[in-house]
Amino acid sequence: MSETSPQVRPQVVLGVSGGIAAYKACELLRRFTESGHQVTVVPTAAALHFVGEATWAALSGRPAATETWDRVHEVPHVRIGQGADLVVVAPATADLLAKAAHGMADDLLTNTLLTARCPVVFAPAMHTEMWEHPATQENVATLRRRGAVVLEPAVGRLTGKDTGKGRLPDPDAIFAACRRVLARGAGAADLAGRHVVVSAGGTREALDPVRFLGNRSSGKQGYALAVTAAARGARVTLLAANVELPDPAGVDVVRVTSALELREAAVKAAADADVVVMAAAVADFRPAVYAAGKIKKVEGEEPAPVALVRNPDILAELSAHRTHPSQLVVGFAAETDRVLENGRAKLARKGCDLLVVNEVGEDKVFGTDSNEAVLLAADGAEVPVPLGSKEQLADLVWDQVAARFGTRPLTD
Question: Which of 17, 170, 247, 391 is deepest in the core (most CB within 10 A)?
């Protein structure tokens, strides 16, 4: 979504619940107001212990809505949610998630959540133990099934000396996710309740402690698939192979190096996944022997040949051994010649549902911010994707996936 003109003025409700991360919502509010959104801040009573009403009013340019009984003639507990284009709650505490999941309405924010008919985004923040508790996980799953976008919390420093998963995602990253949700509008969360696994980057196969066989994949396309899936309501696991990009907001990131590590992570993550998208560039071969010490150059002698062995075909394995009948598998094929011919042959050989085929070369695809491709489907459909951003391609992939889900059951 581009920067919004004052004439459009999307109506955003920023809910703030009572966690120490409430102060970070000030930066999120600033990003919304500076990009032309009209924001109504609805803090809970607990949130006001961390950031006062005057601060919210000053930053938003509007009175903060704090009490159900203020301006009763305007029926604020109904009107605020009804008039919103987006509701985002940041931070969303375990208590707030529980109330939202169970339809409780004991304050203005929870009333607003019940009356909103627009997309709703939750950015959780809490201690690791609270996030991992089965009650919280069930509440999150319930909200996702209903169509809410619940971002995964980040990993990092928490309150006091604690470190772990539960940190509020970066405000800029939350804002970027919200822009994607706003841009899609109604039906934005068409992947709600689904678990999506995406691989990204390129594997490295060690030759010795300092050398490896690798490729030029930057991981940008895989990351674009992850962030767009999260904005469409999915729970996303991103398998990142040697990627030097910041972690996307609301995504679980698992870091791997080699093809064998990626295979192990992919098989594990696919166990309860609704769709697996293998966008990583996986090395076909690895050195047969790993040298424990650096291979030295010997004057006057030619280097010894490097024997290679095949790596496992992860895409074919995942396609052949799906963990449940409704699971979808999507592959990527980077070709340098006879692109469609090779792509169709690969689709048949791998056994996946969709194959994204693109032409690669010296200045094509790898490391760039744009991509063009053809989406080949096992049912014979072929969808050309013109040159555009990698996020645009990612959204078209998810459009095809969502269409094929149809009435397929959720895995959880």
Answer: 17
134 marked as part of a ligand binding site: no
> Given 184, 206, 235, which residue is the final one in a domain?
184
DSSP 196-232: EEEEEEB--EESSSS-EE-----SHHHHHHHHHHHHT
Judge contact between 224 and 391, C-beta under 8 A: yes
pTM for the structure as a whole: 0.81
Local structure of residue 324 (DSSP, 8 states): S
Residues 117 and 161 in one domain: yes
Answer yes or no: is 314 a known binding residue: yes
**Is 215 a residue of the active site?**
yes
Residue 350, annotated as binding a ligand: yes
- Looking at the fold, whether 209 and 145 belong to one and the same domain comes out as no
Q: Is the pLDDT of residue 269 over 90?
A: yes
CA-to-CA distance for 294 and 287, rounded, in angstroms?
A: 14
- Which of the following is catalytic: 111, 139, 215, 371? 215
Cα–Cα distances (Å) from 212 to 122, 202, 205, 217, 257, in that order, read 41, 12, 5, 14, 11
pLDDT digits (tens, 9 = 90+) for 197-224: 999 999 999 999 999 999 888 999 999 9
Query: Is position 99 annotated in a ligand binding site?
Result: no
Question: Total domain count for the chain?
Answer: 2
Chain position carrying tokens 């529980």: 98
For residue 60, tell me if it sits in a domain. Answer: yes
* Cis peptide, bond prior to residue 43, ω within 30 of zero: no
